[in-house]
Design brief:
The complex is a heterodimer. Helix content of chain A is about 40%, strand content about 20%. Chain A is of the alpha/beta class. In chain A, a hairpin with a 2-residue loop joins strand 6 and strand 7. Chain A is elongated. By secondary structure, chain B is α+β, with helices and mostly antiparallel strands. Classes of the chains: A alpha/beta, B alpha+beta. At the A-B interface, helix 1 of A face helix 3 and helix 4 of B.
């Protein structure tokens, strides 16, 4: 899943990016409000983590502009502003969640996952497709009860396909939700990672779950 | 001890009423006494004059015989003349009864008694030591023991021997007990009525004072309800007597200033606490992420370095806040020493040299060598530190920072300028608001503390200097710090 982090305090920004990436999120980040707005308008993020006190353009203005443009991306406000008035204002302007600094990183992760599940209408944090189970919290994948070890990128790709189970997912979709803005990947990198996933998920003659829809993309599911 | 307003008012009213009553009583009593006695004395004098008219001095020879047995005409023979008293006793019955309350006595020039009223019997009526032609009056004790008044004067009796050499005197006295009884009654009446009036005035004054001071009590109640929590809604209404309106005006002004100060303190404290949240979040997240999985030692070292950098930055901020709090509460006395500004600026810049070098910012200290001021060196260092921190923070990449000085007789103005300002000129004063960040001008260095210049402004206020911000053409941001000039000791 791809996140946009707009936070101007460098040490926090650096740690957040590191932690989120280690939690298998693709993270774009900036410390400038205007640049953040541009990122948000240019890409389809799953969640935007937004600070309020920002140089260039404050967080609430970014929020207003995005909502005015009809952008429905989930936005989590991450700020030191802790009064009820601030919270109500942020939520009423269209934020989906509000977290006050300092915060537990685990809580941030849990909130992000909840927002993403809400986005893809998945209430259960354990996704099951036939005999394939994906734990969205622990990032563990099992097939027929057997643990499958995946790299971070492979897991991110599988998670996104699983979130859109039964739907045709284009390469562009995958690119936008699994890869970061500055990824120096070639156009066929998605196909390569799909190949890796197939090898790990569908090995030993098990039922094929990842289907290629020629000219359109991929589909995760038991049947086409 | 300061008396309460009520006691003062009460005492003032009672004493005033008592004094006025006292004066009134004295006037009434004196006037009455004077009138009564004057009328009495006039009547006494008329009687005396009438009596003096009955004395006649005639020459006589040896053959003359005194008329004997004539009740209305008594004569006293002296050498060469005789004295006759043609007094009709029936006309003056009051003088006939022994101790009847009215007396007269004639004396010759030598003081020898010539004749006395029958009422006097053998008693004497020696009221006046000396008499003249002018009538004299006096209070006296009558032979019967009662209080009376007497008048007396000298006169030249009529007759053929009338001359200045023969002078008699007459004293007439009459019982004046009734007058003095009336006066005594009047005196007690006035005294008792005055005492009653004073007592009544105490009761009335108590009610009047209470009623008069009720608005003050109401005002006191209203003021007592004002505290730090309801300063926002505290405004003393002006529905009070006109005399209290100036006080209420002053109180409302005071409440306004208090509210402003409280708001400023609340806002500042809140801003400081708020500003600490972000670095705390930075430390917490860095540690949590570092501990989330086993890592190489280098990674831990990098994370610890990040935490240390944040802690140092927070420590600077906390130290500044503590110093500010202590200075404002006067826990630290301000020193007054001569400071060489050029040297002090060089010392302060050392802390920023690395940061400026990393961003290729040049620095120039143009302050003249003899520029000095008389102030607290530690406080001034803190101010310059924050201003330079702000200048490095907001200066553009490869920008410039320079400091100039301008001397006048009473002050030294330090101008700290930096390039790269993207603020509008009208936003210059906003930089002193806590938490206000020059959004558009911010270079992302990530170490900024949003209360730097707000702190500077408060520090400057502590020692009575002045500070202002200015935005000049070519994106130059200048802070002007006016310091009291000092003489080199």
């Amino acid at each position: 899943m791809r996140l946009l982090l707009i936070e101007d305090y460098k040490p926090l920004q650096k740690s957040l990016v590191k932690g989120l990436r280690e939690a298998n999120f693709a993270v774009d980040y900036t410390g400038d409000g205007r640049e953040g707005l541009w990122y948000a308008k240019s890409n389809d993020y799953d969640v935007i983590i937004l600070d309020i006190m920002l140089p260039g353009l404050d967080g609430l203005s970014i929020l207003k502009k995005l909502r005015a443009l009809g952008d429905t991306t989930h936005i989590l406000i991450l700020t030191a502003k802790d009064t009820l008035e601030d919270k109500v204002r942020g939520l009423e302007l269209g934020a989906d969640d509000y977290l006050i600094k300092p915060f537990e990183f685990e809580e941030l992760l849990a909130r992000l996952r909840a927002l993403i599940r809400r986005d893809y209408k998945k209430k259960n944090p354990q996704l099951t497709i036939e005999d394939l189970t994906i734990d969205l919290n622990t990032h563990q994948v099992h097939r027929a009860g057997q643990l499958i070890t995946l790299t971070a990128r492979e897991y991110a790709l599988l998670e996104y396909l699983a979130m859109r189970e039964g739907q045709i997912v284009t390469r562009t979709d995958i690119w936008e939700h699994v890869y970061e803005f500055n990824s120096a990947a070639s156009s066929n990198v998605v196909d390569v990672y799909i190949g890796y996933l197939r090898k790990k998920v569908e090995k030993q003659g098990k039922l094929a779950l990842i289907h290629t829809i020629r000219g359109r993309g991929y589909l995760l599911g038991a049947k086409l | 001890m300061i008396l309460s307003l009520r006691s003062r008012f009460l005492a003032g009213v009672i004493v005033s009423i008592a004094l006025l009553l006292c004066a009134f009583c004295i006037i009434v009593y004196t006037a009455t006494r004077h009138t009564l006695i004057r009328h009495f004395d006039k009547s006494l004098l008329d009687t005396a004059k009438m009596l003096s008219a009955v004395v006649q001095v005639e020459s006589y020879d040896a053959e003359d015989k005194l008329q004997q047995g004539h009740q209305d005409k008594q004569a006293i023979r002296r050498a060469g003349y005789k004295i006759e008293f043609e007094l009709d006793v029936s006309q003056t019955p009051e003088f006939n009864n022994r101790f009847g309350g009215a007396y007269y006595q004639f004396r010759d020039g030598d003081g020898a008694v010539l004749i006395s009223s029958p009422s006097l019997a053998d008693a004497d009526l020696n009221v006046f030591a000396q008499l003249s032609a002018t009538p004299r009056y006096n209070q006296c004790v009558l032979p019967d023991g009662r209080t009376g008044r007497a008048t007396g004067f000298q006169f030249i009796p009529r007759g053929d021997r009338q001359s200045d050499e023969i002078r008699f005197s007459i004293v007439v006295a009459r019982d004046a007990g009734s007058i003095y009884d009336h006066l005594s009654f009047l005196k007690w009446l006035l005294l008792i009525s005055s005492a009653v009036m004073v007592l009544l005035s105490v009761i009335v004054a108590l009610f009047v004072t209470r009623a008069g001071l009720r608005p003050v009590c109401t005002l006191a109640d209203e003021i007592s309800r004002v505290d730090a929590d309801n300063l926002d809604s505290s405004h003393i209404s002006e529905q009070y007597p006109r005399e209290l309106l100036p006080v209420i005006g002053c109180l409302n002004g005071l409440l306004g200033r208090l509210k402003h100060s409280f708001d400023r303190e609340k806002s500042f404290s809140s801003d400081v606490a708020h500003e600490l949240r972000t670095p705390v979040a930075g430390i917490q997240t860095t540690i949590e992420v570092a501990l989330s999985r086993p890592r190489e030692p280098k990674e831990y070292q990098a994370d610890l370095q990040t935490c240390l950098q944040i802690v140092k930055s927070m420590n600077r901020m906390i130290e500044t806040m503590l110093s500010l709090a202590r200075l404002e509460s006067k826990q630290i006395p301000l020193k007054h020493e001569h400071i060489s500004l050029r040297d002090l600026i060089d010392d302060c810049w050392v802390s920023f040299a690395d940061r400026a070098y990393d961003r290729r910012i040049s620095f120039e200290n143009r302050v003249s060598k003899d520029a000095g001021c008389c102030s607290d060196k530690g406080l001034l260092s803190m101010i310059l530190f924050n201003i330079l921190d702000n200048a490095v923070e907001y200066s553009n990449q490869a920008g410039r920072i320079w400091i100039e000085s301008e001397k006048s007789a009473e002050s030294v103005i330090l101008s700290i300028s930096n390039t790269g300002c993207k603020l509008n000129p009208h936003e210059a004063d906003d930089v002193f608001g806590s938490f206000w960040r020059g959004d558009k001008s911010r270079e992302d260095t990530g170490t900024h503390c949003g209360i730097g210049l707000a702190v500077v402004q408060r520090l400057v206020q502590v020692f009575g200097a002045s500070i202002k911000a200015d935005i000049k053409p070519e994106n130059i941001f200048t802070i002007q710090l006016s310091l009291p000039a000092g003489q080199k000791s």
